[in-house]
Design goal:
About 70% of the residues lie in helices and about 5% in strands. With about 200 residues, the chain is mainly alpha-helical. β1 (about 130-135) and β2 (about 140-145) form a beta hairpin.
């Protein structure tokens, strides 16, 4: 009897935690109702495991989002001398990573409109960091390519950010903590590849 009461109390605690977390985010599981999340069609012990896992997963996800956002802001601050916006630097980075691309493919990767990517490309062409070239296989298509000047600027931008990050990590983390971060990196990389 005590064990049953204990389970019911734990379920209630996990439900309460999950309810609080659900109210904090309007985008949490948009395809599922809060009721279906709080009352999965399983027995009490399964429900307990499920609710506690959901509660913990959301807490970790919220903390990770917050931390990544703050770290991204810190890294962006390191590049205040750049003549390029973050969107322009992102476009240059994508071209460096993927090679020549169609403007539509760039817009898709950046999740912006064709008009927005066109404005970014125009500025980058004007400054000489990207070129427009005709696709050899289909003369109707125009490819965007990073120039040598663009590669140099991108490398300098990365060097500035990495130097700051190295200095910060050296001052903040012990050798053991750095090893933990290194072990965690493959997990984060898997997360960045998820498109669900």
């Amino acid at each position: 009897m005590d064990e049953l009461l204990n389970n019911d109390l734990t379920i209630l605690i996990c439900q309460t935690k999950l309810i609080k977390l659900l109210y904090k985010s309007t985008t949490f599981f948009p395809n599922r109702s809060a009721k279906s999340l709080l009352n999965p069609p399983v027995g009490n012990s399964e429900k307990l495991k499920y609710l506690c896992k959901m509660s913990k997963t959301y807490e970790v996800a919220a903390a990770l989002r917050s931390t990544v956002t703050r770290l991204t802001r810190q890294l962006r601050k390191q590049n205040i001398s750049s003549a390029f916006s973050n969107a322009e630097l992102l476009t240059m980075g994508l071209l460096d990573q993927h090679g020549s691309m169609l403007p539509s493919a760039l817009a898709d990767l950046e999740r912006i409109s064709a008009q927005a990517i066109s404005q970014i490309i125009n500025k980058l062409v004007e400054t000489g960091v990207v070129d427009r070239t005709t696709d050899e296989s289909d003369k109707r298509k125009v490819l965007i390519t990073l120039t040598e000047n663009g590669k140099k600027h991108l490398e300098e931008n990365r060097r500035i950010k990495e130097e700051w990050l190295v200095k910060a990590m050296d001052n903040v983390f012990s050798t053991e903590e750095l090893a933990l971060i290194e072990a965690f990196l493959p997990l984060l990389q898997r997360l960045t590849e998820y498109n669900g």
